[in-house]
């Protein structure tokens, strides 16, 4: 099994080879699969993320899900922790790590989230995940009261048969890919 750093580098290399059209068409397939789940149908509050260049694009899903009447919340990094706030396209700004984040002040409690869409550098289809190394999602999903169904979203090139994991790593309940 490869070490975490080399897997992250390999995934980055693979995603660089994808065209913007491939990324967008993959995102459409991935989010259609998520939308077909019972967890999505039942969810009132969905935690999504604003994608960076090397993640499954979320722009279409953010807007579509908002227009479906779902409450969409997105993360903001504050020091070494991540918090969620309501998604309003006109109340976003570049924040930590160059990521577009919400500027609001009304934090959403962890127990209010029904479904969380989780990015990562790599996944196994069994739910193991390898993040960017900051532990932000692991910390959040470990919060007292957190009860959301957790779905990972990834391009096919981010799926591995096995990944190195640590005891604090939180698995996702399902992984959706193109």
Protein model, in words:
This protein is globular. The protein has 178 residues and is α/β, with parallel strands linked by helices. The mean pLDDT is 95. The protein has one domain (4-177): Rossmann fold (3-Layer(aba) Sandwich), CATH 3.40.50. 28% of the residues lie in helices and 24% in strands. A seven-stranded mixed β-sheet has the order 6-3-2-1-7-10-11. Strands 4-5 form a two-stranded antiparallel sheet. A hairpin with a 5-residue loop joins strand 8 (122-123) and strand 9. The protein has helices at residues 4-16, 20-35, 38-42, 59-67, 136-141; strands at 45-47, 71-78, 81-86, 92-94, 100-102, 107-108, 115-118, 122-123, 129-130, 149-154, 174-177.
CATH topology: Rossmann fold
Strand order of the largest sheet: 6-3-2-1-7-10-11
Classify the secondary structure makeup into a structural class.
alpha/beta
Number of domains: 1
Rough shape?
Answer: globular
Indicate the CATH class.
Alpha Beta
* CATH architectural group: 3-Layer(aba) Sandwich
Alpha-carbon distance between the termini? 24 Å
The overall pLDDT average reads: 95
Strand content of the residues, in percent? 15-25%
H/E topology pattern: HHHEHEEEEEEEEHEE
Regions with little confidence, pLDDT below 50 for 5+ residues? none
Contiguous helical run count: 5
Largest sheet: 7 strands, mixed
Q: What's the CATH superfamily, by name?
A: NagB/RpiA/CoA transferase-like
Please give the radius of gyration in angstroms: 15 Å
Relative helix content: 25-40%
Q: What is the total tally of β strands?
A: 11
């Amino acid at each position: 099994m490869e070490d975490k750093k080399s897997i992250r580098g390999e995934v980055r290399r693979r995603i660089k080879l994808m065209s913007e059209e491939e990324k967008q068409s993959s995102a459409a397939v991935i989010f259609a699969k998520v939308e077909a789940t019972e967890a999505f149908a039942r969810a009132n509050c969905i935690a999504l993320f604003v994608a960076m260049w090397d993640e499954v694009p979320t722009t279409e899903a953010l807007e579509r899900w908002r227009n479906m009447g779902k409450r969409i919340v997105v993360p903001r990094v504050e020091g070494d922790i991540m918090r969620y706030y309501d998604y309003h396209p006109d109340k976003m700004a570049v924040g930590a790590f160059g990521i577009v984040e919400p500027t609001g002040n009304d934090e959403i409690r962890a127990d209010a989230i029904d479904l969380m869409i989780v990015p990562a550098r790599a996944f196994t289809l069994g739910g193991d995940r390898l993040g960017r190394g900051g532990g932000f999602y692991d910390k959040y999903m470990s919060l007292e009261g957190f009860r959301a169904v957790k779905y990972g979203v990834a391009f096919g090139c981010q799926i591995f048969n096995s990944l190195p994991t640590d005891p604090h790593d939180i698995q996702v309940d399902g992984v959706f890919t193109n």
